[in-house]
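Allow me, if you will, to draw on your knowledge of protein folds for a short while. Thank you for your consideration; the sequence and its tokens are set out here:
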Amino acid sequence: MKNINVALLGFGTVGSGVAEAIRKNSRIMEDSIGCHFTISHVLVRHPEKYRDMDLLQGIHLTSSFDDIIADSSIDIIIEVMGGIHPAKEYIFEALNHHINVVSANKDLVALFGPEIMHTAMENHVNFSCEASVGGGIPILRPLHDSLAANEIESIVGIVNGTTNFILSNMDDSGVSYGDALRVAQKKGYAEADPTNDVAGYDAARKLAILASIGFHANVTFDDVLVEGIEKISQNDVQYASEMGYTIKLLAVAIRQENGIALNVYPAFVPRSHPLASVKGSYNAIYVTGNIVDDVMFYGKGAGSLPTASAVMGDVISTAKHILNHSTGTGMMLTETKRIPFYSSLKLENSYYFRLIVDDVTGVLSQIASAYADNDISIKEVVQKSRIEDAAELMIITEKTPRENIIHVEKALQVLPCMRQVANVVRVMEDDRK
């Protein structure tokens, strides 16, 4: 039986999960493709800290990438270090040395995916990155292969477990944003500095990768407009629930007649929509194709073994290519053309406004005039509470372009009666046929 030698770059949460997956399911993998996987090298910063770990017995531990590149027996390098540097340099060097690479690095793939894929093809080796989006959820290869007969019309996803845990906790338990964040940090779902997650940047990187594959285009993180969840309050969550919605951070890629639009933002999601039921740290990606219609991919979006499952899927696929002498074919991110982008300012949505205003006569007429002046129709106005001499208003608009919303928000802020434009959130409609 042929042996496939693997080198791991990094041995954190995902790296240890990969080693555990190989040990736990090696027989299943051998039966599946007829070869044996051996981890021959592990690259870590301080090898002495890992020498007594059971998972690493008999494995060469090194802090030098040169040790790995110099070993001609290595068939696949698995990069699970994260970050841009030195991961980028290691991946390009491996590909240029004709070594296949599997990566879970969303930051790197979101910025350099097509360039990496092109380098892999030039050197007749594979580069795979299924684990860079959605943890254990199979999504990139299904987008590229299973849905290849479709023109993808939209991709709407909950792709960040931290924010979904926070918003789910606020919805289910009635806690504040700050308290929900602290619980997420205590449970290990959120970092000490949660900015990358709560500001939407992590979701934007994953959306860039999804859109690149789904729309066959060169899309990077810089092409995504991003809004986070920091302004979402318990009041917003409560009012959403009263109207039959829950709030989710959505990553949204939409194909328009004149191009594609890419956005990450919090939104009111109807409880009738499948995405509304995605709770806790779970992820889901809802894809609409012009032939298949709607499909949803759901599962754990992070974690040691779920992410290792996606990594090993790529490793097994690469091993099959090695056995068939077909590496360097079927790359997912090889398209280098830039396709038109549709201005997100033109996209139409309904919007929720929460306003704090003076509790005096004539306030509603001032507010209504501001909306009318910006060609926005109001669907609903509800006074939610009184706070001393102020009132809290909830307003839902009809569908209107984003640019009109920006203009009316500025107009509202300078009204004499306005204390605060407390929040403005998109309202998603359940348009399923």
